[in-house]
Specification:
Length: 297
């Protein structure tokens, strides 16, 4: 008689391997939610399609057919005229330089501040967090004149550096408030183990803390870039020369001077919107991972 020996736990291991392959049945409610989300996404894309349609029309076609009709062809005169009128390549570089610099510097400053507040537990931590929360609620209109006077006195007015410094401090206030709450819940045994191994504070920050909170830092980096890109009031006040203007300021200045028709306005809106769309498409996986990292252990 032949006896077949099986390893203990083999059926259970096989079941665990086959479990992910089994498809879960979706009920009618799941399909209803999917259809509703697709319909909502289609509704949200309608304004973008209207902008694209009007940017590809001639002024005569826009007047005769209206803003909602699709273009009969691909006329790029409006896009070309707007590009040349504002020197869009240079303006785009200004926005990328300012937004990218602010995003990186604000994240670094937020990490240092949150490390001191959340893990270092410095004195007056609660009052500092309350001050940062108050700074996030202040409107920009209340900050324009003091910042304008300070930039004039220092000699950095009408420079991209002035806007970078202002927005780095403003964005880092929110980043510090958010990261300090994340780092205050950081596992203390992990920090103690690093200290026992001989790591100093600088090594603990970059080799232990930062790798753990990297998803949150990625989300902050994306948000800081987009928020700075869309800013209008402070760049308009601080950047008065054409060579330092950002995309939002260039769009606002031309709209205020009434130098554009409807097709050129649509072309301007399309060119101003495309960089942020491309940025989101590139970093969408980073953003989704950062938003869901706290919910998955």
């Amino acid at each position: 008689m032949t006896v077949t020996m099986t390893k203990p736990g083999a059926p259970a291991a096989r079941d665990r391997r086959e479990a992910p392959r089994r498809r879960r049945r979706r009920g009618p409610s799941a399909y209803a939610v999917l259809v509703a989300l697709v319909a909502l996404a289609g509704i949200m894309l309608i304004p973008f399609l209207v902008v694209v349609f009007n940017a590809l029309k001639t002024p005569r076609e826009y007047t005769s057919k209206g803003p909602l009709s699709p273009p009969s062809g691909f006329d790029l005169d409006a896009i070309r005229d707007f590009w040349e009128r504002v020197d869009f390549g240079h303006v785009l570089w200004n926005s990328v330089l300012i937004s990218g610099s602010v995003a990186v510097l604000a994240v670094l400053l937020s990490v240092f501040n949150a490390y001191a507040l959340g893990i270092g537990r410095i004195k007056g931590r609660i009052w500092l967090l309350a001050l940062l929360l108050l700074a996030n609620t202040l409107p920009q209109e209340a900050l324009v004149y003091p910042l304008y006077y300070m930039a004039k006195q220092i000699g950095i007015y009408d420079t991209r550096l002035s806007v970078i410094i202002v927005f780095t401090v403003v964005q880092s206030a929110f980043g510090t408030y958010l990261l300090s709450s994340v780092m205050s819940a950081f596992p203390r045994p992990l920090l103690e183990a690093a200290r026992i191994d001989g790591a100093n504070r600088w090594q603990i920050l970059w080799r232990v803390v930062v790798p753990v909170v990297r998803p949150t830092l990625s989300v902050l980096l994306v948000f800081f870039f987009v928020w700075t890109w869309n800013e209008f009031l402070i760049p308009m006040v601080f950047l008065i020369s054409n060579e330092n203007q950002t995309v939002s300021v260039a769009l606002g200045v031309l709209q205020g001077q009434r130098l554009m028709d409807a097709t050129m306005s649509s072309a301007a809106a399309l060119l101003g919107l495309l960089p942020t769309v491309v940025f989101f498409l590139i970093f969408q996986r980073t953003l989704s991972r950062g938003l869901t990292a706290g919910a998955i252990k």
